[in-house]
Every structure is written in C-alpha cells, then in structure tokens.
Design brief:
With 320 residues, this protein is of the alpha/beta class. The protein folds into 2 domains: 33 residues; 284 residues, Alpha-Beta Complex (Spore Coat Polysaccharide Biosynthesis Protein SpsA, Chain A), CATH 3.90.550.10. It contains 9 helices and 11 strands. Strands 1, 2, 3, 4, 6, 8, 10 and 11 form an 8-stranded mixed beta sheet that branches. The radius of gyration is 23 Å and the shape is globular. The N and C termini lie far apart (75 Å). The protein binds 2-acetamido-2-deoxy-beta-D-glucopyranose (2 copies). One 2-acetamido-2-deoxy-beta-D-glucopyranose binds next to loops.
Length: 320
C-alpha cells in the first residue's frame, strides 16, 4: 500500500514536469500564440487599393507603377533609412511629397496624434519620409499635437485630424501612432476598399496579432467611411479602449476590416514608457455601440491654436 502511494506520488511529479516542459516548448515558438486571420494576398494587394488621385482630364502624365514595389517587398528597416534623411530637398514644406516624373495613384494624409515625445517624432519623420517617398505616392504628414495638460486623448486627436485632412482635400487617411515603423516597403500607404488594420505584427508582441478585433496602431480609412461611423469617440482620456470602441463603431455600421498578408503588415515598435491607463475605459466600451450615432465627429469641439508649416510636417496645435 505504502509502496503504491509512493509510486503514485512520483508519477504525479513526472506528470507535472512533463506538462511544464510541454508548456515551455510551446511558449518558445511564437506563432503558437498567433491569432489567425484572413488577409489580402500579395497578388490581390494592388487591386484592393482605392485609386484616389486621378489626374485632371488634360493631364497627360503617366501613372506611377507599383507592381515591383509589392513584388519585391523590400526589407526597409535598416540603419541607413532610420538614421538620416535622404535628399530632404525633395520634400515640400509641410511634409508633403508627390513624384514629379509620374502621376501618383494614391493620395494620403498621414495623421499622427502627438504630445511630448520629441525623439520618437524625429525618428518617425526621418524614417517615414525615406519610406513613403520610395513608394511614389502623394502624401502629407500631419502631426496633431495636444497642447493642454489633460490626459492624452488619442481618438479625439484623430477626429481633429480628419477635419484637417478634409480641409487639405485628402479623402484617404492613415491614422498612425508615432512609435510604429513599417518594416517592409510593400505596405502601400493608400486606402483599401475596406478600412485596413496595417500593423498586424508588431515587434513588441513577437509579430503576432493579439486578437482579431484589434484595430489600433496604424490603420487606413477613407474620409467617407470615417464620416459614416461618426468618427471616433471623444470620451477616452488616457490610455486604452479607444481602439476597441473604433472597431465597435465599424461593426455597428456593418463595415468589415481587412489586413494585408504578412510580412507586409510587420512593424517595429520604438521603445516607450507605459502610459497611464484610463480607468473608465471598460464602462465606456459597454455603451460604445449605442453611443456612436450621437457622440463623435458630430459633437467634436476643440480649440485650434495654430497650423504651422514645418519642413518635415504640418503641425496642428490644439486644446482638446
Ligand atoms: C488644364 O486645363 C486647365 C483649364 O483649361 C488649365 O488651367 C491648366 O493649366 C491645364 N493643365 C495642364 C497641365 O495643362
Ligand atoms: C503648448 O505649446 C507651446 C508652444 O509650442 C509650448 O511652449 C507649451 O509647452 C505647450 N504646452 C503643452 C501642455 O503641451
């Protein structure tokens, strides 16, 4: 009897060890934690994009070509592209660029919500101007800077960004965190027919998508779609929740999202301190769907303090 008991005890320990070993092996293979999601393949990538920069009827310039860019999907995140800006004189004031030797097919406002992260902004501007010019699209970088000392309101800054994009005649926006950099050149910065989650794989999350409904970091959306969902909620002060609210608005409006195939959607995340979470975010999320018609772009109010044309970007200084 005693012998049997001892034997069982030993067995239990072995079982626990084996389970731990299996768990350990499981965790060292990152793709085991990946959420699998449908994506647009390389071959369908260009046809999924909205052509939004048609030339005037008497303009005879040829369209720029994008096939090679997508086919090669060059790895771009190398030090020479991160550390210094190539031919800065080619960039127009306000951080705008369009190729001169062909007609760009895509025209995009890159909207960056911002406050007090100078060194990140510097890296972002250097890298993104190197990156986006190689794509041969027409773009302009807008930095929407919160100039008050209230908690950071990322979603509201995007709403403000959409007002500014419209004023500058853009109908495609890429809503972009300042700490995320695309690593492959084939992630074309245009709008897809459906809103697109562009950073499915982020370095900090071992390049895996955390959950299917994740719709933050870097996304593309047309101004029409943004208006259809009444923009984003203005109520999320501090970190977290606003992305899930964004997704809930799209779902409530029956607008699905899309993603490009890996590795087009791989991003590097610059190191940063963790922000103070918004403790009210879960309460707000509960009513996201009910609230979306009457709270958002149609209740947006803010104080525009300045629009400054900088060499590498257009700075919009606001009180939220
Ligand atoms: C196109 O036509 C308009 C009006 O006729 C004219 O003002 C403009 O300069 C023309 N553009 C080009 C590129 O020829
Ligand atoms: C607001 O902008 C001014 C001018 O750039 C700056 O001196 C000030 O520190 C900013 N305040 C906040 C809270 O960001």
């Amino acid at each position: 009897m005693l012998k049997q008991l001892k034997a069982r005890k030993w067995n239990n320990t072995t079982v626990v060890c084996i389970i731990l070993l299996i768990f350990f092996i499981y965790t060292i293979f990152p793709s085991n934690f990946a959420t699998h999601y449908p994506y647009i393949s390389k071959d369908d990538l260009i046809s999924s994009l909205v052509v939004n920069n048609l030339p005037k009827s008497n303009d005879t310039q040829e369209f720029c070509k994008y096939q090679d860019l997508v086919r090669n999907n060059e790895y771009f995140y190398v030090s020479e592209n991160i550390e210094k800006i190539h031919e800065p004189e080619d960039i127009n004031a306000g951080g705008e660029f369009f190729p001169l030797d062909c007609q760009a097919v895509y025209r995009t406002a890159v909207i960056v919500p911002y406050r007090n992260r100078e060194s990140q902004l510097e890296t972002f501007l250097i890298y993104m101007h190197n990156y986006l010019r190689r794509q041969r699209i027409h773009y302009r970088i807008f930095v929407i800077e919160q100039n008050d000392s209230k908690p950071f309101n990322r979603a509201k800054l995007f709403n403000i960004g959409s007002v500014i994009a419209k004023r500058f005649n853009y109908n495609c926006m890429i809503l972009h965190d300042v700490d995320l950099l695309p690593m492959y050149l084939g992630q074309l910065y245009g709008c897809t027919t459906l809103p697109r989650h562009m950073c499915a794989g982020v370095s900090d999350f071992r390049y895996n998508l955390l959950y299917k409904e994740l719709f933050g970091g870097v996304v593309s959306i047309t101004l029409d779609q943004f208006n259809q969902i009444n923009g984003l909620s203005n109520l999320y002060e501090g970190w977290g929740g606003e992305d899930d609210d964004f997704f809930a608005r799209l779902e409530a409006t029956k607008i699905p999202i899309c993603r490009f195939a890996p590795p087009f959607n791989i991003y590097y995340m610059l190191p940063h301190k963790k922000e103070t979470p918004n403790s009210n975010r879960r309460n707000l999320l509960v009513n996201a769907v009910q609230r979306h018609r009457y709270e958002g772009l149609n209740t947006l109010n803010f104080k525009e303090k300045a629009v400054e044309i900088k060499t590498l970007f257009t700075r919009v200084l606001v009180d939220t």
